[in-house]
Each structure stands twice: as C-alpha cells, then as structure tokens.
Amino acid sequence: MSTESDTAANDGAAGDDLRDLIAQAEDMLHSLTGQSGEAAQRLRERVEATVKSARARLSSIETDARQLTDQAAATADQYVRGNPWAAVAIAAAAGVVIGALLSRRS
Fold it and tell me: Residue 87: inside a domain, yes or no?
C-alpha cells in the first residue's frame, strides 16, 4: 500500500536518477561532436530524444512534488486552524522531545 510520502520519496529518487541520466546523455552528445557518418548521426538523434524525454519526465516529477507539497501545507494549515490548541500541544511536545535529545548530546 503506497502513501503520498512514499510516492514523494520515490519521485525524489527518480528525479535524481533522471538528472544523472541527462548529465550522462549530454556528456555523450559532447563526445559525439565532430563525429561524422550516418551511424554517429543516428546515435546523436537517439541521445537527443532520450534527453528530451528525460527532461519532460523530470519536469513532471517536479510538478507532482510541488503539488504534493502544496497539498500537505494546505492540510496542515487547515488542521491548525481547526484545532489550534491541539497544534500548540503537538508543537510543545515536539519541542520537549527535541530539547531532551539535544541535551543528551551535550
């Protein structure tokens, strides 16, 4: 069962993979500069198509991540407005836990 946070984490990893793929493909394109012949031209076209596809997918992932972030912020805002004292209690508890963890480190 996948959750939105799992999806966001997977999209983040996929985004990193796509960035690496784009960088490698661009390096390959640069290495093909100056190469002539039909085979080199076909390879150049395939690499360019791969880069274009990867950039489109990366853009889609970034848009999805932005939408998930906006949705999470709106949900948190709605909860805090509907339950202000619960939000204060949660924040105070988180502060106590973080303070206790930091005091143990010292």
Answer: no
